[in-house]
Structures are given as C-alpha cells and as structure tokens.
C-alpha cells in the first residue's frame, strides 16, 4: 500500500520515521507493506527520509497512491484537498481536529465507498475514537470528561509542580512539538473544544460548531489560583465536558478546580486522560500521551493498518449517527464556582461584595483573603460558591467589574465535583 504524506512537520516526519523503523512488524500485522513514497511541505527538506515536494498537484496527480495522510493543519485548504481525494474514492487519514470539528460529517458522507480515518485527531496516541465507536458501542454515553489538550496540561502541571512561569512553559511545549502551529488554539481552549466536538458527535450525533459552546483556555490561570488550589486541596486542570442533562447535551471546555484525589487530577505533563461513563459499563478511564510526533504517529499508523487490513467497510470507518439531542443553553450550566478578585483594602468592601452575591442568589462556601504585602493598597480575595446557575455568576462577575473598588479583572473558574 503506497501512501503520500501531506505535511512533513512534527507528526508527518514521525509517521514516516515509524513506518520505516517498524516496517517488518507492520507488514506482519496487516499482511501488506505500507510504504511512504512522497511528502508535501512548503519548504523542501534536504534531510527528509522520503522525497519532498512543495506542489500539491504533484502529489494528487499520482495514480499509484492508495492512501493520503493529511498532516498539514488548517481548515479550508485541507477540506478542499480531502474532498477531492475522497471523491476519487481514495482513502484518507488525518489528525486534523480543527478540520473535523467543522467538516467531519460532510467528509464522512463523501467517504461512503472508501476509508476516512482520524484516530489521531483526539488525545494523541490514546485510541479513544475506536473505544467510543467499538468497545463502548453497547452503551448510552452518560458523560465524557477529558484532559484533551497536552500543551495546557503540560503548562498547568509545570506551574503547579515547579512554580514555572506560563510563557516559559509554553515555549518549552512548542519546542517539544506539543503545541499547535498557532498556540492560541491550545491556550485559549479551541483545540480541546475541537476534540470534544468530535467525541460528542460520535457519542451523541450532536452536530454543533465550536462557536456554539462554552470555551475558555488556561491563559488566565495565575500563580495565585495555583496557590489557592494547593491551600484547599484542589488541582487545576483543563477539561472538556460532555454530558446528558435534562435530555439535552451540556458541552463545555474550560479550566476547573478538581479535588486533588480525583483520578483526572493526577494526570500530569503532556498526558491526556478521558473518563467515559456508559450506562452499561459505568465509568472507564483512558490515559496516555496526548501530543507530540511519536504519540500521534502511533494513532495515524493504526488507521493505516486498519485500511491495509481492508477494514474500510466495518464500523471503524464511516460512522454517522443522527440525534434528537439539543445543546443545553450555557446559562443553564449548574455548578460551583471559584472567584478571584483584587479589591481596595478598605471598610465596607467585603460587605458590598457579599450583598451583590446574595442579590444574584449566590451563596458562599469558602472564603480566603490573601495577606497583602506592605505598601500595597489592594488585597486578593478568593471565594468558592455553592452551586448556582452560570447565568447568575456571569451577571455577578459583570457587576463586580463595574465596582470602583475592584482592581484588574475578576477571574472565575468552575469547580468539577
Ligand atoms: P507542523 O506545523 O509541525 O507541520 C505541518 C506541515 O505541513 C509542515 O511540514 C508544513 O510545511 C506543511 N504545510 C502546512 N501548510 C502547508 C501548505 N499550505 N502547503 C504545503 N505544506 C504545508 O504541524 P504538526 O505536525 O504538529 O501537526 C500537523 C497536524 O496534526 C495538525 O492538524 C495538528 O493539529 C495535528 N496534530 C498535531 C499533534 C502534535 O502533537 N503536534 C497531535 C495531534 C494532531 P513546512 O515544514 O514547510 O512548514
Ligand atoms: N496541540 C495539541 C495538544 C496536539 O497540545 O494537545 C495534540 O492534539
């Protein structure tokens, strides 16, 4: 089976390297050689292991290619290219979650008579797509909760363990090949949202766009939040959450305070983990490297092996289910909240804050005032609330921002119990 690699970066080069290194084992497992014959990149690479070209037509025109592996990134261009390839009834494998979050269903439809694999698009090397489509196919999925972005988890872990500075750790994650070409996708939560939408689409048939769901990233998490979390036995993690609530689907991606004894709280570094609650099996947890060339290559090649095994007509590929589910309105999210705000240290400020909270049906569970340093005229206050609706907390934070005694921004994080 001859393959073309569209994109010879972190993942593309790791796929080629692994196919060549493990070629005998791969052949033994699928009874066919999988040979990378050509790759596409913008810049030519003298040390590449296979010929590289920078003209897409040179690759697409080759009649001898059986499978095209898209590892370029982006949305519009890969959509155009993959659509063309699938219409020619050639198989495609991709790791491109941004593309899939917008166009998976259209592409699955085009792939009716051929294979379209995307195991590598969610959680790097963890075979979570296969788990949902196959291993858990007898279950109604009650909830999916996952650490889905390796870069964010790496940053939060290093900030917690080593008191490292956000920008320095982000740079390290980029050097290690974990981050997206534009790291905003990682630190503002979009990448995790793309992955959550793929999982929610498989589990619930829900077809919504990233714009429709609540997305927040780790960029605003500060040393002070880490300090509070440690004091009160929490760990801060970035989670994607999909769950059935009142016959609707709640979908959200944001940092959370998680009790430090929870299993997801112990997942550190670039590791990802996904907890799936099924009505038959109960809770099961999947853990492994979530980003980086090798981890992703492992999943890309698993799809290639399935294609070589001619599994293209099985349940692995081609998976579209329709749904009667609707998305839960963001305002109806009901949980506990953490608030951090800097205020002038003067009489009456605390009572004004608690008054605003009670006006919006918000009740305090925990309160901490961080002792201020000498010569500072403001103090940092931390609150944890009892459960309330998202609508209430959004109005409260807006009202707090308007107060003359509040300095800087008011930061809010949800608690995941
Ligand atoms: P890189 O930026 O390292 O590599 C992208 C490759 O595609 C480069 O070789 C680049 O060329 C080439 N390329 C990009 N645009 C074009 C274009 N218009 N024409 C020709 N070549 C192009 O990205 P990654 O390898 O990290 O990621 C690739 C895909 O895999 C993305 O969709 C990403 O989201 C996904 N992914 C990445 C993971 C990771 O851990 N890195 C994990 C899971 C999925 P050049 O080298 O000349 O710049
Ligand atoms: N940038 C992504 C991450 C790559 O950090 O998780 C894996 O999808």
UniProtKB/TrEMBL annotation:
Cross-referenced CDD domains: ACT_HSDH-Hom
Sequence positions that bind NADP(+): 6-13
Top-rank taxon: Bacteria
Coiled-coil ranges per UniProt: none
Active site location: 195 (proton donor)
GO biological process: methionine biosynthetic process; threonine biosynthetic process
GO molecular function, one term: homoserine dehydrogenase activity
List of residues binding L-homoserine: 180
Transmembrane intervals: none
EC number(s) recorded for this UniProt protein: 1.1.1.3
Keywords: Amino-acid biosynthesis, Methionine biosynthesis, NADP, Oxidoreductase, Threonine biosynthesis
Pfam family, one: ACT
Binding sites annotated in the UniProt record for NADPH: 97
Reactions listed under catalytic activity: L-homoserine + NADP(+) = L-aspartate 4-semialdehyde + NADPH + H(+)
Pathway: Amino-acid biosynthesis; L-threonine biosynthesis; L-threonine from L-aspartate: step 3/5; Amino-acid biosynthesis; L-methionine biosynthesis via de novo pathway; L-homoserine from L-aspartate: step 3/3
Enzyme class label: oxidoreductase
Family note: Belongs to the homoserine dehydrogenase family.
Entry protein name: Homoserine dehydrogenase
Organism, as annotated: Campylobacter ornithocola
